[in-house]
Amino acid sequence: MEKVYINSIGSISAQKTFDNSDFLEEIVTYEDNIIPVIEPNYKDFIPPAAARRMAKGIKMGVVASKIALEEANLTDIDAIITGTGMGCVRDSEKFVTAILDNNEQFLTPTSFIQSTHNTVAGQIALGIGCKGYNFTYVHSSVSFESALIDAFMQLEQKEAENILVGGVDESGEHTNAINKLIHHIKPEKINSKELLHSKTGGAVFGEGANFFVLSNKKQDYSYAQLLGVKTYNTLAKSDLLANLEVFLKENNLSFADIDVLIIGNNGDIDYDNYYSELTNGPFKDTQQVAYKHLSGEFNTASAFGFWLGAKILRTQQIPSPVALNAIKNKGFENVLLYNQYRGKNHSFTLLRRC
């Protein structure tokens, strides 16, 4: 079977990540419980007339995908596979609000049409004229990993050569209000530098779009090799290490072979203890990295962690704002990403230096 490589990246996040020449050199700090993305100048990527009709999530996804395609020197790809938890939730909220305000009459269909979860992938395909495989996974907080698995299998079996894979979610005002009511969002505003040491429940919510060109053709500019992805809908803490060990063995690795552990802790005191099973266990002497204090929590936030892992392997450096400990390795060969949300939808992802 063919090996799978990450050949390019494109990221729109709460940090200035849309410039691939920069690697978290300037960190933006927030004092809030909901944080927005730092948006590029969309006019540089999308005609203004078209951008005006696009929801924020669509614009983020289109721009992130264009950055990834340009870095890979591609104008078209064989397939587009995206993951999203909530889709274009702002248009969903707008349409439902219009139903209520107008007593279910005189409704324009625009918001409804643009609210579907596969709108981002469809707009990307229309923009580049891609008539190939186009699929969107809506699997809560493993939506991006589901897209990765699909692309990984196709590339391994030589069913495609270049696939655009991404995760995108936007922040919606009404949806955030509901998440506050059910205590999924922290009730208090908190400085992002202090988030990982928080002693309260809930997370700081965010949004973002992260896209990658995966290929079975290694290039001089490739970021990393994707070794494997595994997801679990439910996984007890007592079974976590045993399942991880099996996953590593399937890829001919052991705990000792991991040079960097990237974890998705979000400051929620009720669920961050899942990560402690790894950080205080077999990886206590391993370089540990976190990222959600920079990006916020959302269904495809793990795609930002994937972006971070790819950048670490290519640059062979770890920016100090994401480092959780001071263990210095001579070089980074294997990176393990672990993510879960509120005790469910666990994922393991393995990356290797090219």
What does this structure look like?
This is 3-oxoacyl-(Acyl-carrier-protein) synthase. It holds the Pfam family ketoacyl-synt. It comes from Arenibacter troitsensis. InterPro entries: Beta-ketoacyl_synthase, Ketoacyl_synth_N, Thiolase-like. This protein is of the alpha/beta class. It has eleven helices and twelve strands. The strands form two sheets. It has a ten-stranded mixed sheet, sandwiched between helices. It has a two-stranded antiparallel sheet with strand order 2-6. The chain has two domains: 4-215, Thiolase/Chalcone synthase (Peroxisomal Thiolase, Chain A, domain 1); 225-352, Thiolase/Chalcone synthase (Peroxisomal Thiolase, Chain A, domain 1, 3-Layer(aba) Sandwich).
The beta-strand count equals: 12
Strand order, main sheet: write it out. 4-3-5-7-1-8-12-11-9-10
Average pLDDT taken over every residue: 95
Output the radius of gyration. 19 Å
Pfam families: ketoacyl-synt
Protein name: 3-oxoacyl-(Acyl-carrier-protein) synthase
GO biological process, one term: fatty acid biosynthetic process
InterPro entries: Beta-ketoacyl_synthase (IPR000794), Ketoacyl_synth_N (IPR014030), Thiolase-like (IPR016039)
